Amino acid sequence: MLIFEQSRNGRVNTAQQPAGTKAVSDIPAEFLRNDKPLLPEVSEMQAVRHYTRLSTKNFSIDTHFYPLGSCTMKYNPRGCNSLSMLPGFLNRHPDSPVNMSQGFLSCMYDLQEILKDVTGMKEVSLSPMAGAQGEFAGVAMIRAYHDAQNGGKGDPERTEILVPDAAHGTNPATATMCNFKVREIPTNSDGDVDIDALKQAVGPQTAGIMLTNPSTLGVFERKIKEIADIVHKAGGLLYYDGANLNAILGKVKPGDMGFDVIHMNLHKTFSTPHGGGGPGAGPVGVSERLIPYLPVPMVTKVSDEYQVITEKDNPNSIGRLSAFMGNAGVLLRAYIYARLLGRDGMQRVAEYATLNANYMMKKLEAAGFELAFPNRKATHEFIVTLKKQAKELNVNAMDFAKRLLDYGFHAPTTYFPLLVPECFLIEPTETEAQDALDGFIEAMIAIQKEAETDAEKVKGAPYTLPVRRLDDVKAAKELDLTWKQQQA
Amino acid sequence: MPFIPHTEEDVKSMLDTIGVDSIEDLFDEISDELRAEGLTKVPEGVSEMELSRIMHERAQQDSRTLCFAGAGAYEHHIPAAVWEITTRGEFYSAYTPYQAEASQGTLQLLYEYQTMMASLTGMDISNASLYDGASALAEAVLMAVRANRKSKSKRIFMPRTVHPAYRKVAHNIVKGQGITLEELDFDMDGGFIDPESLPKDPGDFTALVIPQPNYFGVLEDIDALTNWAHEHKALVIAVVNPTSLALLKAPGSWGDKGADITCGEGQPLGAPLSSGGPYFGFMACRQAYVRQMPGRIIGRTVDLDGKQGFALTLQAREQHIRRSKATSNICTNQGLLVTAATIYMSLVGPDGLSKVANACHNNTVDLIDKLEATGKAKRLFNRPLFHESVMQFELPTDQLMDAMSAKRILPGVDISEDYPELGNVMLVCATETKTDADLQMYADLVIDITKNS
Amino acid sequence: MSNIPDELRYTKSHEWVRREEDGTLTVGITDHAQGLLGDLVFVETPEAEDTFSSGDDCAVIESVKAASDVYCPVDGEVIEGNEALADAPETINHDAYGDGWIFKLKPEDGGAFDELMGHEEYAEIVAEEDH
Q1: I need a labelling partner for A335 at 20 to 30 A (CA). Which of A394, B310, B405, C22 fits?
Q2: Does domain C9-109 fall into CATH 2.70.50.60?
Q3: Which positions in chain C have a beta carbon within 8 angstroms of at least one beta carbon in chain B?
Q4: Measured distance CA(A122)–CA(A137) in Å, rounded
């Protein structure tokens, strides 16, 4: 039942209303609204019960193993939430002067320092509000850098951004937003970038390359130094998509691999909550030559006072990308997480994420599942391809995914990366215990058996969730995007 | 090891399964020259108890303040239930609802949110959120360029009465695509865009942005502005405060035909001030432009048994499918904040939201009166306003800010840097959270500080 | 095996083209292409008087899982877009070469049609993809 269907005209929650409110008298009628907006008129308890019940229809990290590849669904420590929601943090207005802000700014400054350390970059700006915005900031900085070359006359020839064909869809979308042409670079059969194709593709038109390492194929790009050299020699810059930073946290620093600019997804690597699709945070780090272009605001420390850097201080900045300071509350959670982990804990993240992934990969392989890259080690994630099942049993990756839900596991990422047919991208993360991994593997084995003996059962899944498989075609063709009163 | 469950025995048995001797061996594809030397600036780990002490101390430094600032971030009462439910693990720790069957809670909530926002704005449809108000305006500009096929100029008229940070963000995000934002100046007496001052022969332009209320809190002549844009075959992008919509005319009813795209900052609906984020941007539009809309959209459909269910729809617009031809690169949005907003709107209802809007406005008017009564401050613009006003003070604003902030009071936002022509001015706002005593204290302090300076 | 009528010409990007008696061209997507996309949910057709060069994207077709551009096969000016597809995009799934046509075009150069691929050549491309 929808909240609107529980609504009754005239039901009010006086406990949630300012008392004794008079209607305004000084706004002329031409500016005023005449109709009542369609907001629910329910009691406080009805609202609480409705949304509590809705919440139980979700899978989440707190309730289920959630091995969604490329999303790093690790445990979100509760302490990060409660400590970031202390009244002093929640009630601080974004335009507060620095003398009312030292507590908050000190956390942001410390977080900048921590992120510089783990990435090996020279300077960090925390302001982008999600990975995609961090990407935008990164590519915008590449543009700003080229525009400033030749004594400010710019380098207008550099119109192309190279993107491996395995990249996240955001990479080409971002390059286009910054008015670059996108040229795709193929991947070889071991999952590395095709170096010969790269050599062919670079030239005076190359503005940069966007790389994820480990790549979206779940393998480490072994020739990264060579790639860096080729692109740098051609005058281009290297962009690091930090989507998979969890795989190398504390082990390899993108700065050491030769990257000029990087974005991080704090909602992945630094365990801030995914919130059913956000908020995220996508800080960017840069090498020396891109420092002037970093997005504002940033936090600095002058003698003992934390201060805010704005456009005034950094005139060459690509500017601000949010009204205020980005997703400050998310940044606080990431800071708290980093402090709880500490130096040693942070170095173990990649180790145990990698251990879990390789363990699952070996066990699944032993159970007869086909790996996309059997000759490679897994990073923090790996790919199983179900093309044999699709061809021989007519049970595809989507069917396996839906059936896994019945077994109480969130499905891995399906049909991404696009390069591998019928794929499952599996990322267990470091916070899962061995029994959870074993449980998932047993479920996969059981589903395989079902697929062999009773394919229809798998194809009809799920059976135990609030709804069965949904009609996507109807959803897209007969758009029903808002509830209408007369439907009641 | 924080948050890592493995015992030594677990590790050993897992390594045996893999067939390697140590965890280190799992990294042998990474060449030695790339291996990090270790971390130096990350502090040693601390327990939750120790960190709790540190964080309480830091939060304490910024707390116990009295806030009369608005300027795009408003302090409202948030019912306790809002964040109690929002931070339930099932909402808090779920991902984007790609597996619809395992995400019906979030999906239904988003569908309800879309319904509420469409109605509040008077538009046909709403998306499931963008990052914040400023970036929502940038996305609205990009969307208008895609949607208005009659215009080839990629020229957008952007009044200077739009939030300065929003204008900067919009510029920073759209400039790479050959879009120009042309400023419209405001009337110095009214603090609004005088329709009489609009160009008679503007040439081809794509859209006009109309803020309501505008950055100064002043109400724009929305009907005349909307009609002017439509007469010139341009679209209208409304930038509105959602609380105000319980009281003010919805953009869908502006002028003869209504605005085409509405966007804004969703923070007033249940998000705490929180240093500027996370908030959420909202965006709603006419049905005809649905395929040009960025961000995630939820649709209602049926399952195999014909039972109602909810799913992400129109995904073909999005970056993971369209790649370099996507409507936007946005993927993660602000789901958790939308969860809070939906619960907030359900708890206050239409009557409650209207009362909040009325109470904020009345408090602000009372504050203006009290400040003017001191003889040390006056209201700058003579037009009708909503819940915020530009006040001109006798004292230099930095002096006032220093003296007030020393007493933990934020007297408003000093806007003289963005509008030097206005002189010694501060943008002030008193929401429903302020009492008569708070307002009086502000006025009394202005007298004291002016006297002692 | 997908249906590839003999009398039509084809492009590598899976458009089919028919020359009408008055010399205008009718363009759609092939049966093979609609099969790859699956159930179509939306089609955006070009408007009359829009002009395109060969290879320009001039229409969009969308299924649940993919959105795909339709490319103009030759230089020319659009005479008419198939507006009926707005309400019934599935027509392309059912009748790709008939009622599922997408737009009609007045070619700049009448000979351009003859330069396009014949059915045999196109069948080879399809066979290769199916491999």
Answers
A1: B405
A2: no
A3: 41-42, 44, 47, 62-67, 69
A4: 16
